[in-house]
Amino acid sequence: MHFGVAVLTGKPSRESALRIPPCRPQKLNRVMQTLEEENKRVLKKQRHCVAQIDRKLDELLTQVENTKKKLEERQQELCRKKNRHLATSSAGEGEEGGPDSSNNEETQASAPTASGGDEAPSDNAEAPCKNEDAEAKDDDVAVEEQDNETEFIVRDFIRRVRHLNFEKNVASDLKAIHVLLSKYSKQIDKNLCTDITKVCRMNELDQKLVCRLVAEYLYQDGQIEAADAMCKEAGLDLPPTFRDCFIELHQILKAIKERDMQPALDWARKHRKELGRLDIDIEFELIRLKYVDILQSSPDMMDAVNFANKELPYFHQTHAEEVGVLMSCVLYKGKLEESPYKKLFNDTRWDEIHDAVIRACCCLRRVPYRSYLETCLSAGVSALPAMRKLMSVMDSKLADWDSMEELPVEIPIAKELRFHNVFSCPVSKEESTPENPPILLKCGHVICHSCVKRFSYNMTRRFKCPTCPVEQTESETRQLFF
């Protein structure tokens, strides 16, 4: 582990050294999450806009279809009226031709009655002509109204389509996506490094140690056969307990993934005393999870009560409060998500028990919870952006940082990847170094060696602690090792 961190990151520097603003992978993750959220938001807005446009278009098309049917019906009605009008006019002309000939004969035969007979036929002939003119005018008015209504419907349809303005909405959303995509590519180019050969130190690696790191990682990842082959080919001699530990662990984890906690419970009960000495409550956590699972999945709450009466009495003295909470959950059967204990039923409980079992097993067998190879790579990757910037600065100054014992910048490393304490002197505000180690005073306070030397006038007289009034000599102090 130590060699990997040294190869990839170097040593941490003093706080007073020049700082180059780090570019952490977390920043890239946040940028990618922001881009993903913005992309989802824009896509959701687009889907909503498209659905709204489809709905409006469906309404308009339905209205157009209905209007079209009405227009066709009115057109057919007008055609029928015209046909009836033509039939009536033709029949009237035929009737007018017959009476005229007979009337002529009668006029010729009886002249005295001509004056009285001429008035009646003239009135009868003028009446059909007036009816025809009125029907023709009505037909012209109906056709004109039909044309006006059609023109109004078409104009209203165009107005509504323009009011939707879907082209502008889609274009604006696509513009927002384009801006985000352009920023996304820039962030990738800014945060990801394609060539890291100049960042790594050209030190010769211990091949056997590298093979051991890889083999341990394979065991911890559950690739037992590959790890056995690696050990055989590289001639590694790992302790048998290391292999047996991870074989047993991955059998338990496989059962937990299938929601079967019985192998884990059997293992916890088998090692109850050892786990108790290490103050590990994995057995109670497993029983609690199984109780919660039964209470949530079983239709009869008495199944959970019977399980609790069987398993929880052993924990009444050590976990009385937690047992009371578990028994109170029965009162909220059927509405557990609205209960005060809903945090016990969250979806992450299986992931939490998965990690808890790994930690308990590794702690019991005294093997690392996290593989050394994974730790080295995580530390190196997190420090890579700052190291890359350091490389560009050192190249511009024509300096070789491979020969440095300490880097001129502070390398950003996550808290879980820091394993070595660093002492900062309360007097000089400097970090301790091998040449200036921390010194434990007689009173229990700690200062750096350079301050002790300065206060004692080069180790020649007694001096007083800078924090309290206790006096001592240099021989009464001790070097402190973390």
TrEMBL record:
It is found in: Cytoplasm. Residues 73-145 are annotated as: Disordered. One of its GO terms (biological process) is proteasome-mediated ubiquitin-dependent protein catabolic process. Its main location: cytoplasm. Residues 246-302 form the CTLH domain. Residues 425-468 form the RING-Gid-type domain. Residues 425-468 form the RING-type domain. The keyword S-adenosyl-L-methionine does not apply. Pfam families: CTLH, zf-RING_UBOX. A zinc finger (RING-Gid-type) spans 425-468. Keywords: Cytoplasm, Metal-binding, Zinc, Zinc-finger. InterPro entries: CRA_dom, CTLH/CRA, CTLH_C, Fyv10_fam, LisH, Rmd5_dRing, ZF_RING_GID, Znf-RING_euk. It comes from the Eukaryota. GO terms for cellular component: cytoplasm; GID complex; nucleus. One of its GO terms (molecular function) is zinc ion binding. Residues 135-145 have a biased composition (Acidic residues). CDD domains: dRING_Rmd5p-like (cd16652). PANTHER family: GH10162P (PTHR12170:SF3), MACROPHAGE ERYTHROBLAST ATTACHER-RELATED (PTHR12170). This is Uncharacterized protein. The lineage of its organism: Eukaryota, Sar, Stramenopiles, Oomycota, Peronosporomycetes.
